[in-house]
């Protein structure tokens, strides 16, 4: 009768195989734990210093045109037109906002309906240009610039700005605190927003500034002031 072969050799091989498998798995696990972490391929955007830190209206709103206040209206109520222009959506545009206030919303609504960009926008540009010319001067504008001042304001008002677009309008009803100790009241504020591409308005304004007639001839001091304001006009415009 033939003797059955001892199974020790087969068992030994099995144990060796299992041990090698365990070692491989252990090394793979350690390597996986030590793999480099994923690196972000983008840099979180930081808010520039000139961005408005608050776009919430500085006064409480009793009622408004719609449930959601547009971002531009929030920015305007908090910080004026400069705050709107600092918003990323309008960084390539000049923003102009016409406002009207009163107690009769029906009348104010008619005002918004009668607003025409072709007629009213040149006046908005002229007013903003006038404010720019009057900034940082030490005397009256006519003394500072001579005839240039009056002619410039008129030229801005008479110009046609074909690229201006009425972008939006909005209204809010807000409380008004009486300064004389009288009874507080509410007031409607209607806003009309007009935008124009910054590059196109810049080109048109430069063309206007370069063709303003200077008759009678300004003094040397006035000519220096005119040259300076032409070169730096868009600083603070």
What does this structure look like?
This protein is an alpha+beta fold and 237 residues long. The chain has one domain (63-231). The protein is built from 8 helices and 4 strands; from the N terminus they run αβαβααααββαα. It has helices at residues 8-33, 71-85, 105-114, 117-134, 141-145, 147-158, 198-210, 220-231, and strands at residues 63-64, 93-102, 165-176, 185-197. It has a 4-stranded antiparallel sheet with strand order 1-3-4-2, with helices on both faces. A hairpin with an 8-residue loop joins strand 3 and strand 4.
Number of helices: 8
Largest sheet: 4 strands, antiparallel
Q: What amount of the residues lies in strands?
A: 15-25%
Radius of gyration: 35 Å
Shape: globular
Secondary-structure content class: alpha+beta
Give a count of the beta strands, DSSP E runs of length 2 or more. Answer: 4
Q: Which regions contain 5 or more consecutive residues with pLDDT less than 50?
A: 1-57
Order of helices and strands: HEHEHHHHEEHH
For the largest sheet, list the strands in their spatial order: 1-3-4-2
Number of domains: 1
- pLDDT averaged residue by residue: 80
Distance between the first and last residues' Cα: 113 Å
Range of helix content: 40-55%
């Amino acid at each position: 009768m033939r003797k059955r072969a001892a199974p020790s050799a087969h068992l030994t091989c099995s144990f060796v195989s299992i041990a090698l498998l365990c070692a491989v798995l252990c090394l793979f696990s350690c390597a996986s734990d030590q793999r480099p972490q994923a690196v972000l391929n983008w840099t979180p955007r930081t808010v520039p210093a000139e961005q408005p830190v608050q776009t919430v209206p500085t006064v409480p709103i009793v009622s408004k045109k719609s449930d959601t206040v547009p971002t531009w209206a929030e920015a305007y109520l908090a910080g004026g037109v400069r705050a709107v222009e600092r918003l990323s959506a309008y960084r390539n545009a000049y923003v102009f906002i016409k406002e009207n206030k009163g107690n009769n919303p029906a009348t104010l609504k008619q005002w918004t309906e009668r607003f025409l960009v072709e007629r009213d926008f040149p006046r908005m540009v002229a007013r903003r240009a006038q404010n720019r010319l009057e900034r940082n001067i030490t005397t009256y504008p006519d003394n500072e610039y001579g005839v240039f001042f009056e002619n410039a304001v008129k030229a801005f008002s008479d110009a046609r700005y074909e690229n201006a677009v009425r972008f939006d309008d909005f209204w809010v009803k807000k409380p008004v605190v009486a300064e004389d100790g009288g009874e507080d009241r509410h007031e409607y504020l209607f806003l009309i927003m007009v935008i124009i591409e910054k590059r196109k308005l810049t080109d048109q304004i430069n063309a206007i500034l370069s063709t303003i007639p200077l008759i009678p001839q300004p003094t040397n001091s006035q000519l220096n002031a005119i040259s300076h304001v032409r070169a730096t006009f868009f600083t603070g415009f």
